[in-house]
Amino acid sequence: MSRYAPRRPGDVARFVRSEMLGLVVTHDAQGYISTPLPLLAETGEDGAVHTIIGHFAKANPHVARVEANPQALISFLGPHGYIGPAAVSKPGWAPSWNYQLAQFEVEIALEPDQGDAAIRLLVDALEQDFPQPWTPEQMGERYSRLTPHVVAFRAQVIRQSARFKLGQDEDRETFREIVDALGDTPLAHAMLDQAQY
C-alpha cells in the first residue's frame, strides 16, 4: 500500500463530505468539459463512497454529454499548499507540495424528476450547522420556477483512488516543523489527521 494512501476506512468519505466541491469531467469527440459542483457522497456499510449525488443546470452541456455517454471522472481536491525549505531545519531539504486528492470514475444516471429532492438534500447538508437553517420555502414562488431548470443525477462509482500526500515521508522532527510553520490551517489539520507519528 502506498504511504500516501488514506490511513483509515472511511477517510475518503469524510474527506469528500468535508470538501463537497467536486470537479465533474467528461470527454467525447468534441473534447473535454468540466464543471465544478457541490456534491454529496453516499457510502455503503464498508464506509466507502458508492454513489455521488448532484444536479446540473439543464443548460449545462454536460447534460447532453451524459445522455450520450454516462462515463465521467469526479475529482475532489482538498487542503493543499507549498512547503518551502524555510519551514524546516534539515540541511538540503527540498521544497514540496502537500495535498489531498480523491478521484472517482463514475457512471452518471440523470434523474430529471428528482431535481427538488437533490436540491433539498444539498441544502440540508450545507445548512445543518446553522442555528436557523435556510430552506427553499424561503424563496417563495421563485423556487418552483427554478427547479424545472435543473437535472438531478446519481453517479455510481466504478473505481476510486485517493492520494493524501501530507508529509508521511518526512521524519518526525521535519513533520512537526512543517505543521508548526503552517499554523492553524486546514492543511496542517489534514497532516495531523493522517500523521503516522
From TrEMBL:
Q: Which Gene3D superfamilies match?
A: Electron Transport, Fmn-binding Protein, Chain A (2.30.110.10)
Q: Name one Pfam family in it.
A: FMN_bind_2
PANTHER family tied to this protein = PROTEASE SYNTHASE AND SPORULATION PROTEIN PAI 2
What is the name of this protein? FMN-binding negative transcriptional regulator
Recite the lineage of the species. Answer: Bacteria, Pseudomonadati, Pseudomonadota, Alphaproteobacteria, Sphingomonadales
